[in-house]
Design goal:
With about 150 residues, the chain is α/β, with parallel strands linked by helices. Helix content is about 30%, strand content about 20%. A four-stranded mixed sheet has the order 2-7-6-4, covered by helices on one side. It has a three-stranded mixed sheet with strand order 1-3-5, with no helix packed on it. The longest helix is centred in the N-terminal third of the chain and has 23 residues. The structure holds copper (II) ion. The site of copper (II) ion (CU) has 7 residues, from loops.
Length: about 150
């Protein structure tokens, strides 16, 4: 009987260890963040902070919009441009700042910023993006706001 208890205790300790490893792995924590196209020619979230491995889904909740990336982290290629009025999904595997917009509304400021892994290495590249004065001022505001938001985890 004593031996059995010792064995059960060992098994429980092992189980706890396995659960800890599982809970701390990225796969267990990967999230899906949804962003909608609004009737005001904007994205429902202008700035999001995510972890490496998280997914962003854009939903065509209003017509006439899409997702086109105009800035990515250094040495990272742009995710594919989406088709108009279609849902789009991107898994972010590289840390840094990503800027995207809606192709027909880039210059009216339909823009969004994604901070992956709390990494701001390429934030200054936002100043190199050439859009209309209105859109450039939106970008500057987004960059400033993103920098002021500290990620909680
Ligand atoms: Cu649009």
């Amino acid at each position: 009987m004593k031996i059995k208890f010792a064995l059960i205790k060992k098994l429980l300790i092992y189980l706890c260890f396995c659960l800890q490893v599982f809970a701390s792995s990225d796969a267990a924590l990967a999230k899906v963040i949804k962003i909608e196209f609004t009737e005001f020619d904007t994205y429902s979230s202008e700035i999001i902070h995510i972890n490496v491995g998280d997914t962003v889904e854009w939903l065509p909740t209003n017509e006439g919009h899409n997702v086109e990336f105009i800035m990515t982290p250094i040495m990272v290629s742009s995710p594919e441009k989406s088709k108009m009025n279609e849902p789009h999904s991107v898994i972010f595997q590289e840390a840094g700042i990503y800027v995207y917009g809606c192709t027909p509304h880039l210059n009216t400021g339909m823009l969004g910023l994604i901070v992956v892994g709390n990494d701001f290495h390429n934030i200054e590249d936002i100043n190199e993006i050439k859009l209309s004065p209105v859109a450039n001022s939106v970008l500057k505001r987004l960059a400033k706001k993103a920098k002021s938001q500290i990620k909680s985890n």
